[in-house]
Amino acid sequence: MLFILCLVMVAETNVVDHQSLPASEVPFFVKGSKIEDMDETLSIKSPVFGQVHVTESDSAELSSSQMDVKSLEEVPEQCIESAILQFSPSIRSGSFADIGPRRNMEDEHIRIDNLSSHLGSVFKFPNPSAFYGVFDGHGGPEAAAYIRKHALRFFFEEINFPRTCEVDDVFSEGVENSLRKSFLLADLALADDCTVNSSSGTTALTALIFGRLLMVANAGDCRAVLCRKGEAIDMSEDHRPTYPSEQRRVEELGGFIADGYLNGVLSVSRALGDWDMKFPKGSSSPLIAEPEFRQMVLTEDDEFLIIGCDGIWDVMTSQNAVSLVRRGFQWHDDPEQCAKDLVMEALRRNSFDNLTVIVICFSSPENREQPAPQQRRFKGCSLSPEALCSLRSLLELNANQ
Ligand SMILES: *[C@@H]1O[C@H](CO)[C@@H](O)[C@H](O)[C@H]1NC(C)=O
Ligand SMILES: *[C@@H]1O[C@H](CO)[C@@H](O)[C@H](O)[C@H]1NC(C)=O
Ligand SMILES: CC(=O)N[C@H]1CO[C@H](CO)[C@@H](O)[C@@H]1O
């Protein structure tokens, strides 16, 4: 029954309501060359957030012009630019953690959808601003728990985190530098803290969103994956000793790999803690806490980000996960449920690990009420307009009886 109702909505989109061409089919945003660049002029000064969704400005544009692609191409360059610059992700997130078949849970995570309201009295952040982290522990839960507990101190308070409302190149470089410092600081803190066993360690993956800037920093084998129009884009590299670039680095630093394990004991090649393998401080160990970075300027094509610990990626490709979460969003639009669905699917595929997932969605719920996503969903369904019309009248007939 639900299915049929949805079809009717499509019928209305296609046949009746010509005003609402889906954003994905408007060649409008592809035109500007600035989408991928950090534009100097981009500054998120006023809280445009939550008001300007691209689909809205779209339909305003469309209703005042004729409904063909040609007229869209004639929209003055300035309007196109401003529509791109106005795009501001609307952030919602959910998470789910499962202990898996093992006995202790060693994963920890952190999820802050609005950094300004969290730390706002001290810091000035662009809007929106969000922070996420997944810390996957090994050799006991202490290291991961310790990093989680002190994350805000390491990532914002004890370093000179850039304080500004403008998102530009200088800012993104500043964020990268301070993230690097945070990882190293947190690593050293684990060495000094006597409550953390020196054989305990943790991987760390953090994602920051400032305005349209997404910055991922990773040390270890958690993974962040972006969904862009349904396609999976990896936002991190798994740091496994067996991966060629990591293997080279490890061997240059005098480490060895046995059976895929670093120095025969560890399945990751980067981690915080594990001071058993790093002592003395300052010596060059093949196991490092130095993160790798990836950044992206988000556009309206970017739907959500998944962050998962390795237990997920052991049994699923990035694209598997993106497709599953995307179906979930179309069905229930609940990031928490999407995270749970993903963990359940990994369990069903016999993942042998503890499992943690965060799903961060970049569009507000009311976007969903608009026809565009619905139409995208049924793109593959090829009922003719005639068939849809007769289906509609059939249903109307039923409803009136
Ligand atoms: C985040 O919190 C700040 C301060 O409380 C508020 O001004 C801002 O509108 C919030 N942003 C979002 C996206 O809700
Ligand atoms: C640290 O962990 C190792 C291995 O798990 C254990 O043998 C040792 O007793 C622990 N040390 C402390 C101080 O808890
Ligand atoms: C108790 C447990 O299963 N811990 C595991 C959680 O995941 C990490 C990363 O794969 C493992 O190293 C832990 O042993």
From TrEMBL:
InterPro entries: PP2C (IPR015655), PP2C_BS (IPR000222), PPM-type-like_dom_sf (IPR036457), PPM-type_phosphatase-like_dom (IPR001932). Its EC number is 3.1.3.16. SUPFAM superfamilies: PP2C-like. It holds the Pfam family PP2C. It catalyses: O-phospho-L-threonyl-[protein] + H2O = L-threonyl-[protein] + phosphate; O-phospho-L-seryl-[protein] + H2O = L-seryl-[protein] + phosphate. Its cofactor is Mn(2+); Mg(2+). One of its GO terms (cellular component) is cytoplasm. CDD domains: PP2Cc. It is an enzyme of class 3 (hydrolase). One of its GO terms (molecular function) is protein serine/threonine phosphatase activity. Residues 92-362 form the PPM-type phosphatase domain. Keywords: Hydrolase, Magnesium, Manganese, Metal-binding, Protein phosphatase, Signal. Residues 1-18 form the signal peptide. Belongs to the PP2C family. This is protein-serine/threonine phosphatase.
